[in-house]
Design a protein that fits this description.
Blueprint (H helix, E strand, L loop, with lengths): L6 H7 L4 E5 L4 H7 L6 E5 L7 H13 L3 E5 L5 H9 L4 E4 L5 H11 L21 H8 L1 E6 L2 H5 L1 H4 L7 E4 L1 H7 L9 H16 L4 E4 L5 H7 L1 E7 L1 H20 L1
Parallel strand pairs: 1-2, 1-8, 2-3, 3-4, 4-5, 5-6, 6-7, 7-8
Helix pairs in contact: 2-3, 4-5
Length: 252
């Protein structure tokens, strides 16, 4: 038995863009989304209802379709991080990582010794897998969110931390921390987002950010290698178009 490959990590290792789809915390819906050509499924445990009891089935559904299960946890807590991995997550997203020490704490919870201090337990990803502890270190995906202006100011130091796979610039929270709540497009915010991405890329580390169909090419040209998006805007746009066409047809 081999550990299930981490598709997002494979894309990053190949220098390609990895896509992660958010918007579901339901295993049946993950099955429906499984045929889509995306690399990972974002499972929301900070703002959404994902809890430890759910993670077995959620991550199992991702495994069935070869998607990387990426769980955003609610805080940068040692036990929260390793317990989420123990429950089957292939990737962890940690919010509000603002200092080098906080980035190092993510590694401590997310990697077994000698790289970190992850609690000694075999995840459901590890049953029957020889040399699981080393293999898990190779396969676990660690993402930190750069979502406060404090993190941008400390970015040079944060980027020095090894074993973090993706430094993900989160524009909405960053806008709020800069005093522009709900206005990601505000020029100063956009300049700060772009500057953070450029610094990550220039340092040789992998950058990620929230994208949509209108800006994804711009960001990938800048060097973003993890593109996360929600499927809800496409449902919203499609429903609006359907309603408008139905109304137009009724008018004759």
């Amino acid at each position: 038995m081999n550990i299930r490959p981490n598709r997002v990590k494979e894309k990053l290792a190949a220098g390609q863009v990895a896509t992660i789809l958010s918007g579901t915390n339901d295993p049946d819906l993950i099955d429906q989304l499984g045929t889509l050509d995306v690399d990972g499924i974002w499972l929301e445990g900070e703002h959404g209802g994902v809890d430890y009891a759910d993670l077995g089935n959620l991550t199992r559904a991702c495994d069935l379709w070869g998607k990387t299960s990426v769980v955003r946890v609610m805080d940068n807590d040692y036990a929260t991080i390793y317990r989420t991995l123990d429950r089957g997550a292939q990737g962890i997203v940690v919010p509000h990582v603002n200092t080098r020490a906080e980035a190092e704490a993510v590694v401590a919870g997310g990697k077994f010794a000698p790289l970190g201090k992850r609690g000694m337990f075999t995840s459901r990803q590890g049953f029957g897998v020889g040399d699981y502890l080393k293999t898990a270190n190779d396969q676990s995906l660690l993402i930190v969110l750069i979502e406060d202006i404090a993190a941008v100011r400390n970015l040079d130091e944060i980027l020095k931390v090894d074993h973090i796979d993706v430094f993900f610039v989160a524009p909405n929270d960053l806008a709020t921390s800069m005093g522009h709540i709900g206005n990601m497009g505000q020029p100063e915010v956009q300049q700060t987002v772009d500057g953070a991405i450029k610094k990550i890329v220039q340092s040789g580390r992998a950058a990620g950010t929230l994208v949509n169909a209108g800006n994804v090419e711009r960001y990938t040209r800048m060097g973003v290698r993890v593109a996360m998006t929600s499927f809800f805007p496409w449902i919203q746009a499609g429903t609006k178009e359907l309603s408008e066409r139905a109304a137009a047809g009724a008018r004759g």
